[in-house]
Design a protein that fits this description.
This protein has two domains: about 100 residues, Urease, subunit C, domain 1; about 325 residues, Metal-dependent hydrolases (TIM Barrel, Alpha-Beta Barrel). The protein is of the alpha/beta class. The relative contact order is 0.17. Strands 1, 2, 3, 4, 5, 15, 16 and 17 form an eight-stranded mixed beta sheet that branches. Strands 9-10-11-12-13-14 form a six-stranded parallel beta sheet. The longest helix is centred in the middle third of the chain and has 18 residues. The two termini are about 30 Å apart.
Length: about 450
């Protein structure tokens, strides 16, 4: 492997923006980080003049559904990891609701085997919790398991754990981070029945989705998760916050249990709100539901305040032929991994936040919370997972053309962005450049340290 010098970059790293140079060694690790112009080009096999572009640690997307194994008509690890690196995501953590479900340690190891030699980005996989697999949870290998995923409400894959006794078992037996999808199924069922009665001769309008999967559904489940984590001393990460009520609960719990609770939200909750359902319909259906304008504003505020710790894309592709069905038959989920980083840089500009805040939310925070070994920072000795992003002189329009995700669509078509990913390095190797053919897969299995 070549020794690569990236010079004249604006490095977004560890709470700062610095004019910097980064030297990548032949081992695929960062050999040196120094001020711009301070590293001689002599030892380098190639020199990249970043020309003032941003350089940051590659995003670690801790919330993707790459549909592999079992649902590969929608997506697979190869197609979606290619989409990931084209968007500056250098590592991903894939959810367990595949076919078969990843709810045993054997299935987890088989998933790692399936990923070898196929992924353009580095990869890790959740172990899923069920009503009766606490023995598997107790026996997990923390070096290859980033977290246990618990669905406290039903979503794609039918993995919901509802019985309180079973929930106590999961919270009590999880020895590492527990990541939760928080919704209350009883309320969802009641709200769905109410909507069906209101529309007996036709299908439910998509605009009722946030009433069916309501803020109350989310907040009630978040409150229960926080209480169970307190009782059992569990380190808890609450996924895809979508409403103001959840934020209030998280703020109080963080004050009471510092360091034991963290939270994620996703770009679609920050960019979209209930006013968009009438025009976007099926494109917006996801779980939890995208809610009101005030929820959107509160979530945006939490990005700046630090109440939100990470951004995950919740990349959940479905084919257009599936998504364009009526509401009750339309699967929930949307593709996001390809544009999440660019969208967050745009949002930071709009909110008056420094761009290094995005590095914290999408690289440092995920690495720290999940214990990702030697990634997520531009540090000497760390794996050289880096992304070069250009702030464009003229904004560009996102379209459906050229989308790498197998599903072939994006909810962000017609969105204007001022950012473009111009290069992504994974393990010191160029994994994406828009002017070159996509290189072969170079992703590695992630390792974790939960100490």
């Amino acid at each position: 492997m070549q020794r690569i010098l990236i010079d004249n970059a604006r490095l977004l790293n560890e709470g700062q923006q610095l004019e910097a140079a980064v030297l990548i060694g032949p081992s695929g690790r960062i050999e040196r980080v120094a001020p711009a112009g301070a590293i001689s080009a002599g030892p380098a096999d190639s020199v990249v003049d970043a020309g003032g572009d941003y350089l940051m640690p590659g995003a670690i997307d801790t919330h993707v559904h790459f549909r592999d194994p079992g649902l590969t008509r929608k997506a697979d690890m190869a197609s979606e990891s290619a989409a990931a690196v084209s968007g500056g995501v250098t590592s991903f953590l894939d959810m367990p609701n595949t076919q078969p479900l990843t709810t045993s340690n054997r299935a987890l190891r088989e998933k790692y085997t399936l990923a070898q030699g196929r992924c353009h980005a580095n990869y890790g996989f959740y172990l899923g919790a069920t009503q009766r697999n606490t023995d598997e949870i107790k026996a997990l290998d923390p070096a290859i398991t980033p977290a246990v995923k618990l669905f406290m409400g039903s979503s794609t894959g039918d993995m919901a754990v509802e019985r309180l006794e079973a929930l106590h078992g999961v919270f009590g037996q999880t020895p590492i981070l527990l990541a939760t999808h928080c919704e209350t199924d009883g309320l969802i069922r009641a709200n769905t029945q109410h909507a069906r009665k209101a529309y007996p001769d036709g299908d439910i309008p998509f605009r009722l989705h946030p009433q069916i999967r309501s803020a109350q559904c989310c907040a009630q489940s978040v409150a229960l998760a926080i209480d169970l984590a307190r009782q059992h001393g569990t380190r808890l990460h609450i996924l895809h916050l979508s409403c103001a009520e959840e934020l209030d609960l998280v703020a109080r719990a963080k004050a009471q249990r510092p360091g034991m609770l963290t939270a994620e939200t996703c770009p679609h909750y920050l960019y979209l709100n209930g006013q968009h359902y009438d025009t976007m319909e099926w494109r917006m259906k996801c779980n939890p539901a995208i809610k009101g304008r005030m929820d959107q504003l509160h979530l945006q505020e939490a990005i700046g305040s630090g109440l939100i710790d990470t951004i995950g894309s919740d990349h959940a592709p479905h084919l257009i032929s599936e998504k364009t069905k009526p509401y009750t038959a339309c699967p929930s989920g949307m593709p996001s991994v390809e544009y999440a980083l660019q969208l967050m840089l745009d949002l930071a500009d709009g909110l008056g936040l420094p761009p290094h805040r995005v590095a914290q939310l999408m690289a440092h925070g995920p690495a720290d919370i999940y214990g990702v070994c030697e990634r997520g920072y531009a540090r000497e000795g760390y794996h050289a997972d880096l992304v070069r992003v250009r702030h464009l002189a003229e904004p560009r329009l996102l379209t459906q053309q050229g989308i790498r995700s197998r599903c072939g669509w994006t909810p962000y078509a017609e969105h204007i962005t001022r950012y473009s990913v111009v290069a992504t390095w994974v393990n010191g190797r160029l994994a994406y450049c828009p002017d070159r053919p996509m290189p072969g897969p170079g992703g590695q299995a992630l390792r974790f340290n939960h100490a």
